[in-house]
Amino acid sequence: MKRISNALLVIVVLLLSVSCASLGQKEAKFTVIALDAPETAGDIATVPQLASSDIIRQAFNAVEWWGGYSIKTIVEEDFWFQPEPTALCATGTFDDTYLDMANYSEKENAKSKLFTEKYIAFRKDTNGKYEYDICVGEGQAASSQCYYQCFSSIGSELLVYVPYDYPLSKIALEPISNEKQMLDAENYIVTDVEGKTYVLSKADVSESTVLFDLNTVNIQTPAGLIQNAYSVVPEGVTPESTPVDGKIMRAVFALCAKSVYGKQPNAVGNVKGSYYNAIQIGTLLAQYGAKAPVSAQYNGTDYEVARVLEDRLIHHKSNGFMALRPYQLKANTDDAVNVASITFDSAAIVFLTDAASTVESLNAAVADAKVAQIEYLDGSVVDVPVADALATELVAGCGIAAVKFF
């Protein structure tokens, strides 16, 4: 009899193991995701329940959004000499000492801007507010914007803009605002977008003009017009050359860069606004394996489910949790929603506070659920009766990550 009892016990344990394993693989009828307040106010990345790999950056209260081109991509694809991560990059205009400066890709401190997080937007404003190129994106502080910018000095090369006609000598022969100057040579080589080269003497350079154009860069020389100019380099400099400290080895015209010329913008950047860590709401549901919803609400008000899944959740120091449109604008009040609750027909996102609430108070659609699971922050998962799951208290610091009904 003892042997039979032991055998039955083994069978029961095996059946329970199989049941639990299959339950873990089954899609939940309803999923409650519980989010504590972040450990650092204003930084949703410090919410214990969130996977750091899912965190993205999101602008809050941007004044404008512009299609632009990644300066990082231009540097990687077009520059012969890649800058050091700590290289101090400077954007300026000719005949002006002001420079907008930032490290290339490694911050000095948490608040520092990075040049690799800038995008260049080319005169896309049809109302005439901007008649010149501007830098946009997280790397550009609006208060530091250089108007009518002509160049960005990036390591040993220049990225050149053309807001108006100016002498080619401004690039090749004269010091720029940060006192850097192109390496001296008897001749300079201009290359167009098709790879054709033109040799200009110093005298030719002195008599040549870089011409303003909305879509390309042309250079008027004594010998004629060079169309779609791509780069300028001192004769003898090659990609294998060793950069000379303090000298510009080459210049690339931004409008004719490989990722720009004849192509649509590859990025969207903001003008003004502050950046926050964020998580896309649809990503958060997927992180916990929630069933795809067909309806959605913010604070009890219906919203299109596609919109809610696309929205980004941030934590604002003053306003708490907020749901933002990907390209949220300060002027559009519906682009930003202070959220006390986010509910779907198949899930709910609960923001935990010191005031305890129960899962049952969410009116979750679990009438036909057979069993429930509670997932804890430490990774443990406990199967519980549905009634117990519904009575579970959700309160700040409770250690619960999710409650699922099957």
Write a structural description.
The chain is α+β, with helices and mostly antiparallel strands and 406 residues long. It has 2 domains: 28-59 and 273-405, no CATH class; 64-268, no CATH class. Helix content is 15%, strand content 34%. It has helices at residues 2-25, 71-78, 169-172, 202-206, 281-287, 305-310, 386-391; strands spanning 30-35, 56-60, 64-70, 88-92, 99-103, 119-121, 134-136, 151-154, 157-160, 166-167, 181-182, 187-192, 197-201, 209-211, 218-221, 224-226, 229-234, 247-248, 250-253, 267-271, 274-280, 296-298, 301-303, 312-316, 320-324, 336-338, 341-344, 347-351, 357-358, 372-376, 381-384, 393-394, 400-405. The strands form 7 sheets. The protein has an 8-stranded mixed beta sheet with strand order 23-22-27-28-1-33-30-31. The longest helix is centred in the N-terminal third of the chain and has 24 residues, at 2-25.
